[in-house]
Amino acid sequence: MPEADVPTKMLPLWQKGWYRFARRLESPNFGPRPKDVQPDLIVIHSISLPPGDFGTGQVQRLFTNQLDWEEHDYFRSIRGLKVSAHFFIARDGQLWQFVSCNDRAWHAGESSYCGKSNCNDYSVGVELEGLEGLIFEQAQYETLSSLAAALLQAYPTSQVAGHEHISPGRKQDPGAGFDWQRLRHSLGLSAASFPVHVDDRVPD
Predict the structure, then answer these.
(1) What are the sequence ranges of the domains in the chain?
(2) pLDDT at position 198, please?
(3) d(Cα 198, Cα 190) in Å, to the nearest integer?
(4) Which of 14, 28, 156, 160 is most enclosed, with most CB atoms within 10 A?
(5) Pairing of β 87-89 and β 95-97
(6) What residues are annotated to the active site?
(7) Strands 112-113 and 116-117, bridge-based pairing
(8) CA 77 to CA 106: how far, in whole Å?
(9) What is the pTM of this model?
(10) What is the pLDDT of residue 203?
């Protein structure tokens, strides 16, 4: 039976690291994971381009090396940057995927967590459309929870952290507006799966 004729409920949730419920837009910015390494960490980021502007499509262009550096002053300040994340969740909850979870995306930079350096090697990067310190939308939490649950089932993932936790002092995202307690409870994970004190950072 051709795949187009297969009932949706019969299609696999993952195909070679690609998530069925994400809109696929492949990035050239990726590489292989080290031999025998599977992701055991989910890293949550926030991003918007230009900073504070939502729904522009510029994040997708950045991750696919199609950003027009001359279009905005901020873009000129990051000229030539080549980065990616596995996933991007827009303000309305729409989910995009740029890199297979079987591969290494370029989202963490200089980083370490739980005594292990080079987080890109063993993590999945999830970008939320937003700005450090601001709150995120209900639709984004719903999509993130579903995605994280699927990752927990498909990979030996045991930890969830923010970019601020793996690159302290260098990065501050997703920031104080992110509700860690909400995510933790939606996934039914213990506090041991999250950075210390994240439950103290619950938005008003």
Answers:
(1) 23-195
(2) 72
(3) 12
(4) 160
(5) antiparallel
(6) 127
(7) antiparallel
(8) 19
(9) 0.93
(10) 47
- The tokens for 19 are 């998530």
Q: Which amino acid is at 54?
A: F
pLDDT at 133: 87
Phi/psi region, residue 163 (left: phi>0; alpha: psi -120 to 50; beta: rest), is: alpha
Fold classification of 23-195 (topology level): Lysozyme-like (3.40.80)
pLDDT tens per residue across span 137-159: 999 999 999 999 999 999 999 99
pLDDT < 50 positions in the chain: 1, 202-204
Strand partners of residue 4:
none
